[in-house]
Amino acid sequence: MRELLNNKVINENDIESLTTIPVIGSISKVEDDGERENTIVVGPHIRTGVAEQFRLIRANLEFMSAAHNNRVFMITSSSSGEGKSFISINLGITMTLAKKRVIIMEFDLRKPKISQYLGIPNEGGISGYLAGMGGLDTVIKASGIHENLYIANCGPIPPNPGELLVLSKTKELISELQDMFDVVIIDTQ
Q1: Nearest CA to 90 among 126, 36, 128?
Q2: Can you name the residues that pair with 183 across neighbouring β-strands?
Q3: What is this structure's pTM?
Q4: Phi/psi of residue 142, each to 5°?
């Protein structure tokens, strides 16, 4: 009876039985206490199970998008606290380990977490750029983790994030970043 009433996704089989969308990988649950040391679980010499899961996802993404030069990946979920920023950061690091130049866009304009995790100042950023208060140079910041990993931080939290996202400048920003980077990862709300 319990299984019949359960409407939660437990594993990949639940997804594969309901849809034809391919599962590119899964990540084991990692407890998060908001500290940088626990947020970053991949690196050049880290061989944990979770690090290998990220490498598998990278390989699958590269295989699925082999025909494209500039790739954009959006990380999203149905609710807050499900690990979008964790996935974005670690996927970005994993991509840099494959010699890719990567930028992570902190597009959660209501509750940005990446800047906080990485200790990146809140100046400039995506919200300032979209509001016309700064150029592209105020958006791109070095991550401090890897020489090929950059962050487009949120910037100051705007009063109208939804209105900023529908501006034509948003598409221009993503297009400009595609020209500059091998991989663009969009961390959403």
Answers
A1: 36
A2: 71, 102
A3: 0.86
A4: -65, 140
